Amino acid sequence: MGDHSHGSPKSSGTVATAGQSEVEKFQDPGLPPHRPRLADKDPRAEKRAEKQVAILFVISIIGTLLFFVGYFAIRLDETIATLRLQNFLLGMGTAFAMLGIGVGIVHWAKTLMPDHEIAEERHAVRTEEDRVIAETMVTEIIEETGIKRRPLIRNTLLGAMILAPLPAIGILRDLSEDLNPDVLRHTMWDAGVRLTRDPSGTPIKASDVTIGSAFHVIPEGLNEAEHKLEEKAKAVVLLMRLNPEDLHVSPGREDWNYNGIVAYSKICTHVGCPVALYEQQTHHLLCPCHQSTFDLTQECKVIFGPATHALPQLPISVDDEGYLVATSDFHEPVGPSFWERG
Predict the structure, then answer these.
(1) How many domains does one find in the chain?
(2) The Rieske domain covers which part of the protein (predicted)?
(3) Euclidean distance between CA atoms 169 and 194, whole angstroms
(4) Average pLDDT of the segment spanning 1-9
(5) Residue 280 falls within a domain, yes or no?
(6) Could you give the CA distance from residue 97 to residue 101 in angstroms, rounded to a whole number?
(7) What does the pLDDT look like over 29-66, one tens digit per residue?
């Protein structure tokens, strides 16, 4: 066997030992060499990049205008085609408005703003020097962006940024005339209003509802209402039948169901998505948007998901002809929870 002592940890220098001199500090490798971009070398490429950024900002402006066309110019006429057209214009307009600004700023930074790496020593902060340094830094940043000498980019960016927030302001304003949550407290349901199938409007008899079945329900007369979509968004209901012994009824709600037939608002109390999935075996209602789950046997109490409030129950009974009717409106506001729900 040969002598391998020269390769041992102690002799190879790979392991520091007591008494060994201090390991040298890593040397500063310095900044990597700067690679000029095409726009740095070719004035035509610089001008082309400037136009591209401006075009992206113009796309943002067009997107905002497209949103306003869909929001104000498209009048809903109770047809699905018109509703889809408006949703398309609203969605595409918002997407292009946000995307144009975002991509434009990124393209501006990557092609036109200085990309030199700079290393600076940290200096002690002094009151007057701090102010001067901050002022100098702001001035340098403005100069580096080139916004002063590129009016095309400056003007299109200002136009895009001014218009982009307006769709959000319009949407928030139109939530209600006075942004008043009281509009959610009242629907078309009232004592004696028949429960009808959605969308046909055919009345439902109690004998039609079998155990395990589920009906999507609207109030009678909804299809002829002046503001059909707005009223439907508040009044739509899910109707199901369980064995009466499976229901856990709270005091005061004993007459809100009819022989195990119960009706609950279809509007999720999280963000207002339609609760459309009914699991017959578990008696659970599921919202497909964020998986909020409600237990039908416990008056639609939330058992999973982000919703924090049970689905409002519609009190029901039958009329002289055996048709299911409401005995009142909902006793609480429908839809997402808010601070004035009460």
Answers:
(1) 2
(2) 261-325
(3) 39
(4) 51
(5) yes
(6) 7
(7) 777 788 888 888 899 999 999 999 999 999 999 999 99
